[in-house]
């Protein structure tokens, strides 16, 4: 038969579908949750073998938990966007306070390193994990550290931004 052009007029369902799909995709990308747990970060898919290939068919529990949490927040913000704005404002104020407190402590101790707002957001969302390891095993950029409680300097390049590289931007 050949190419058939679509109807030149948009009907009501076309408008509803396009608005709803844009709304859902934008709200999915707009919700930025705290960093996932290590289990959620390494969430996998259940797979079956098809010939020589392993085909994913359903996310395992940690990944489903991560998605469920994001979908619930997304739905809440879809129905009451002012809640999302309020939470974002509160997190901004908390990050400013954390940055100012960290910089005051650094100044008091005579350190030249300064924290930025990005550092404060990253720390508040659970992105900095400090583990104590034996001194002989602790190395920072190839040099021995000052002790087991010393935190290495953290520059903006050291922060790992994961929101655009994970599954479906989750």
Task: Please characterize this protein's 3D structure.
It is a single chain. The chain is mainly alpha-helical. Among the domains are: 36-79, no CATH class; 81-128. The protein is 46% helix and 10% strand. It contains five helices and four strands. It has helices at residues 12-30, 38-41, 61-79, 81-108, 117-124; strands at residues 45-50, 53-59, 139-140, 143-144. The strands form two sheets. It has a two-stranded antiparallel ribbon with strand order 1-2. Strands 3-4 form a two-stranded antiparallel sheet. It is flat, with a radius of gyration of 23 Å.
Topology:
Elements: H1 12-30, H2 38-41, E1 45-50, E2 53-59, H3 61-79, H4 81-108, H5 117-124, E3 139-140, E4 143-144
Antiparallel strand pairs: 1-2, 3-4
Helix pairs in contact: 1-3, 3-4, 4-5
Quick structural overview:
The protein has 170 residues and is mainly alpha-helical.
């Amino acid at each position: 038969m050949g190419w058939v052009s679509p109807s030149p007029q948009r009907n009501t369902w076309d408008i509803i579908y396009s608005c709803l799909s844009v709304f859902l995709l934008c709200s999915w990308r707009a919700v930025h949750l705290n960093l996932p747990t290590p289990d959620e970060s390494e969430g996998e898919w259940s797979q079956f073998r098809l010939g020589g290939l392993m085909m994913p068919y359903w996310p395992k529990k940690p990944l489903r938990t991560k998605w469920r949490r994001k979908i619930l927040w997304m739905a809440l913000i879809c129905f009451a966007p002012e809640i999302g704005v309020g939470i974002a404002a509160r997190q901004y104020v908390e990050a400013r306070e954390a940055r100012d407190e960290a910089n005051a402590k650094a100044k008091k101790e005579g350190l030249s390193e300064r924290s930025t707002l990005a550092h404060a957001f990253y720390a508040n969302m659970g992105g900095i994990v400090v583990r104590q390891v034996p001194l002989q095993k602790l190395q920072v950029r190839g040099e021995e550290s000052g002790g087991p409680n010393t935190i290495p300097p953290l520059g903006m390049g050291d922060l790992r931004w994961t929101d655009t590289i994970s599954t479906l931007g989750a």
